[in-house]
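Final report, Chapter 2: Outcomes

The project's central promise was a pipeline that accepts a single protein chain and returns its three-dimensional structure in a standardized token representation, suitable for archiving and comparison. That pipeline is now operational. To close this chapter, we reproduce one record exactly as it appears in the project archive, with the input sequence first and the structure output second.
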Amino acid sequence: MKITKKKPEVLAPAGNLQKFFACMHFGADAVYLAGRKYGLRTSTDNFDREQLKQAVEYAHSKSCKVYLTLNIVAHNSDFEQLPEYLQFVKSVGVDGLIISDPGVFAMSKIHANGVELHISTQANITNKYTAQMWIDMGCSRIIPARELSLKEIAELRQAIPSHIEIETFVHGAMCMAYSGRCLLSNYSSSRQSNKGACNHSCRWEYTVIDKKTGEQMNVEEDERGSYIFNSKDLNMIEHLDKLINAGVSSFKIEGRSKSIYYAGAVTNAYRRAVDFLFTNPGVKIESEIVQELNKVHSRGFCTGLYFGKNSSMDTNYDTANSVSDWDVVAIVLGDCIDGTVLLEHRNKFVKGDSIQVVSPNSYHNQNFVVEQMSDEDHNVIEVANKVQQKILLKCNLPLKKGDMLRKKI
């Protein structure tokens, strides 16, 4: 399909400062993150005030944007300290606020006047009339409900003013509830999913029967139970051209709670995919770029509801675990100098292992064999198996700070 629109934004998940720098290194145009309150991922490290200020300054130095999530379903007590916090985030230069609650939206217009206001998928925008209501209130970007098809997104694009942006998810975990509005976690562990404390109880093992009607559900089951709520992960990398032509201007990657490797590798894949589409019009995305996502842990992949109603093929009935044939083994802490690079260990590797590079640079996916390594005191080692150990590695590739190393398992 020929692309006629401008290049969309690659929007990456920054669960903490380390993941933020990974997203920057691997080519994000923008990141979304949360402070210590008001976001829907309290399980992540998130950003204190000084870290938020640092992130915004660094992102802006790289011509990138920072969007802050304020997308909880707010209760009265949540508003007590919100005005002062809004004044702070405006003062540090946050580019946009992601909001689902009308009260938070109204308060943001007063105390963060001039900051772009984006309407979260949690607000459940499924039609042009609701979208127009938010636009009339002053938003600049719509993040529709995940339940919309490509056809419905295209209709929404045609119905709203051209300067209003549309952002949609392209990759990551899918929630079994309508646009993430779920009470399973509240019921199972008293952790409020709509205030950021979801325990992902939808991924647990279940055996289900409708006792009221006697109807049997068509689910597969083994001795561990059935994962009937365990959706496969969203993966739209082969359909980005369709999203662009439907009018999507920002591609959002889910995963603030996931690893630094996930943040970097998935951002890298979508950065390469978008750039490929715009430098090779009408050409199918290279298989190497598509296959990159199989080297990151997932529950299997689906295309969500973009192409209409989902099916049983979109659920992983086998396991709730995220799996891959590859593991990250180290993060590069500094540029390679005179054939030696400083690493931080992540998973076991040994002398003689074949290691693959993950990088935004031209040597991405190149392999090399571990021949010589030592600890920080220059004691020769043959096995790297201490978590976050600093390692000096001999390497003939020009590795840069922020690159990652992985191996097939």
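Archive annotation: Residues 221-226 have pLDDT under 50 and may be disordered.
This record, like all others produced under the grant, will remain available to the consortium after the project formally closes.
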